[in-house]
Design a protein that fits this description.
15% strand, binds manganese (II) ion, 721 residues, four-stranded mixed sheet, five-stranded mixed sheet
């Protein structure tokens, strides 16, 4: 453990890197990256009043703790360069090559994501970070180190921001660290999050630990000596260390209602030996001397956890009846237990770190689930929902009869287990046996359960009811997929009915419509092999009936449809901004109008400095800018310039009768121009997003009032995305 208050210098970083990588060219490149970052951040201070360079330097230093490769260390030193300094991607590529640059770009992207609140943007952001894992896991490893250093200096932020950051760390970054097996970083992040989220709980645990420290230290020291010599007497070279439990792990136990005095595994030892065989020997020797507690023994060597963790765990009665939790492992296992995926660096390969990436694919089950989810068609919300359920929630470890470990979210049933093992096993399942007894299919699996699934090759397939019983999205989707495959007949019928209904509505005779000429044209246009396929596509809502009928009845479009089409095809052109906005004290700077809130003259506005991209102008009410941010700058409209700017409004109407015609009519006696109309769907109402060009806020207010007078319009508002 490094002392967190210790001041990190480049010399220290260099030394620590040299301890595991002596390649001269690598050290030279790191020096070059440091000097470049130093120069670019020069003169800038962090909120902590340290020079900014301290931050990237610390992030890089944390990464040497997990033996990161040269590329990753360089990227860590440069990780804030694109966002905060006037450096372009091109310049970075020229100086440091595409690999380092792509890592820096990756980290910059993640840093722009916002995870607070429960909105759609956050869901999409979640997806980005998770999918990012599949591109280059080193980006996420840098992000974890970046967050760790920011959490170490979190005291500098106001309380509200501290809590937000701590929450985000706990909800998103810690589960990822856990899944990647990076326990050392995870554990420190957990303690820091707890310290800011629940300071009273945190400090009371710290205090209680301090009060009992001396006593515990003495007991542990004594036991360490006894175990060391016991194993040495049996000819096993070993090293035994007392192990401090993390504050967070104690908090978790207290949180389940246990008293401090009941947490017996406060006394914890870790035994290191050279070989796997010696792990088992050591265990046997310990058990013959100290009585083990039944059922507390776990063999994670034969059956590694899904994040690659390996060790033997046991709890024994030590001296004076004290309980000791003992972990036995080799040094190699220890490296993986502490650093997980980050113990698989390859220092020789160029380009993507293939050995690390393929270890992810082979060894981390969660990663396979993500790949699988990525390949099934799902929208952002479904995807994130399933990842959250399957990846981020508390998990249990259960076993196949052969002893393979399967990890499932808490609350999973034998159905989830069966589908996790194999789709075929799920589809043909007729029953389940857990620990030797038959259980109902809604049985909730527990840690360490051994599950045997009974299958019958002649089974008709799953029961529809299982969709409600299953816990994982994976199992639910697989059951649904089974029924989709098998519901062909129903879908054909449904498709045919829908088409017939729409034709009746438009007063077109079915047989006239589907004459052979039309039929061929439709099948060709919609890329269906035959009528059956066409009906299925309609039946599962892949092809809307309107689209089908319009292949033939093209000229029968309603006026609304024509207007909509025309408006939709028009490109939204951003106006050229140069002198339209005045920035206090700066003349020649690139200005962008924010597309989220689309400010127009008359709106109260602020500038947001996005270094490298100039200044983005937002409406003051836009939630995408946070008040506390130091990157906000005063700006105002240049009143001498008169021109039209785009802004967006949302119109909610109860029906569609002449709606668009009426809306457009309202523009005829004003200077407003409709630039783009986008129909959105929402329940029974008609919802339109309309982009208009206006000169001034007064014009849009007048226009909104006019639109409100249209009888079927329920509400009109300006949009902030
Ligand atoms: Mn940073």
């Amino acid at each position: 453990m490094t002392n967190k208050k210790e001041k990190i210098t480049f010399e220290k970083l260099r030394e620590k890197f040299l301890a595991y990588n002596k390649e001269k060219v690598d050290v030279e490149k790191i020096t070059k990256a440091y000097l470049f970052a130093y120069e670019k951040h020069f003169g800038v201070k962090r909120l902590t009043n340290e020079d900014y360079i301290e931050h990237p330097l610390n992030v890089a230093y944390i990464l040497t703790g997990v033996f990161a490769d040269m590329t990753t260390i360089c990227a860590a030193l440069l990780h804030d360069i694109l966002e905060d300094c006037e450096v372009s991607e091109e310049e970075l590529t020229e100086k440091f090559g595409p690999e380092i640059t792509s890592l820096v770009v990756g980290v910059t992207k993640i840093n722009k994501l916002n995870f607070t609140g429960e909105n759609e943007a956050m869901i999409a952001n979640h997806r980005k970070i998770i999918v990012g894992l599949s591109e280059d896991v080193r980006v996420i490893i840098i992000k974890l180190a970046d967050r760790l250093h920011n959490m170490r200096t979190l005291w500098v932020l106001p309380e509200k921001r501290q809590k937000e950051k701590a929450r985000e760390t706990l909800d998103i970054l810690i589960p990822i660290a856990h899944r990647l097996g990076m326990n050392q970083i995870k554990s420190e992040l957990e303690d820091l999050s707890l310290r800011y989220l629940k300071p009273d709980v945190y400090y009371s645990i710290v205090e209680t630990l301090n009060q009992t420290k001396r006593e515990r230290d003495n007991i542990v020291k004594d036991m360490v000596n006894k175990v060391t010599s016991l194993l040495a007497d049996h000819g096993i070279k070993n090293e035994v260390k007392g192990r401090a439990k993390s504050i967070y792990s104690i908090y978790k136990k207290l949180d389940t209602g246990r008293k401090f005095s009941d947490i017996y595994d406060l006394l914890a030892l870790r035994v290191f030996v050279d070989t796997e065989q010696e792990c088992y020997q050591a265990l046997g020797i310990l058990h013959s001397k100290y009585r083990p507690i039944p059922k507390r023994f776990k063999d994670f060597i034969a059956m590694p956890k899904t994040n690659m963790y390996q060790s033997l765990h046991t709890t024994v009665f030590g001296m004076d009846g004290n309980l000791f939790e003992i972990q036995i492992r080799t040094y190699e296992m220890d490296k993986i237990a502490e650093h997980g995926i980050a113990s698989h660096w390859s220092y020789k390969e160029k380009g993507k770190n293939h050995s690390m990436q393929s270890t992810m694919e082979q060894k981390l089950q969660f990663f396979r689930s993500i790949i699988e989810l990525k390949n099934t068609e799902s929208n952002d919300e479904e995807f994130v929902d399933s990842v959250k359920k399957d990846v981020f929630k508390d998990t249990i470890y259960v076993f196949t009869p052969k002893g393979d470990v399967v990890e499932l979210p808490n609350g999973s049933t034998p159905i989830d287990f069966a589908y996790r093992v194999h789709t075929e096993v799920g589809d043909r399942m007729v029953g389940a046996i857990v620990n030797g007894s038959i259980v109902p299919l809604d049985y909730q699996l527990k840690d360490d359960d051994i599950i045997k699934i009974n299958v019958n090759k002649n089974s008709d397939g799953p029961n529809k009811e299982w969709i409600n019983i299953a816990k994982t999205v994976q199992a639910k989707n697989k059951i649904k997929a089974f029924f989709n495959r098998n519901d062909k007949v129903t879908n054909i019928k449904r498709g045919e009915d829908l088409v017939a209904k729409e034709l009746r509505k438009r007063k077109i005779a079915f047989n006239d419509f589907f004459n052979s000429e039309n039929t061929n044209k439709i099948l060709e246009e919609l890329k269906c092999a035959n009528m059956e396929e066409l009906y299925i596509s309609v039946g599962i809502n892949k092809i809307p009936t309107n689209q089908l009928i319009n292949v033939i009845m093209n000229d029968n479009e309603t006026k609304e449809e024509i207007i909509l089409k025309k408006a939709q095809t028009r490109e939204v052109v951003q106006p050229v901004i140069k002198n339209d906005i005045i920035v206090k004290g700066i003349d020649d700077i690139k200005i962008n109008i924010a597309s989220c809130c689309k400010p127009i003259p008359g709106d109260r506005i602020v500038g947001y400095i996005t270094k490298g991209y100039g200044i983005t102008v937002h409406r003051m009410v836009c939630p995408n800018i946070r008040e506390l941010d130091e990157r906000i700058i005063d700006v105002k409209w240049n009143e001498t310039i008169v021109k039209k700017y785009p802004t967006a409004i949302l119109i909610d109407a109860s029906n569609n009768d002449n709606l668009l015609l009426n809306i457009i009519a309202k523009t005829s006696n004003s200077s407003i121009v409709v630039q783009n109309i986008n129909a959105l769907t929402k329940g029974d109402n008609y919802l339109y997003e309309i982009v208009v060009l206006v000169e001034h806020k007064e014009d849009i207010i007048k226009f909104i009032n006019e639109v409100m007078t249209i009888s079927n319009v329920i509400s009109v508002e300006r949009i902030i995305k």
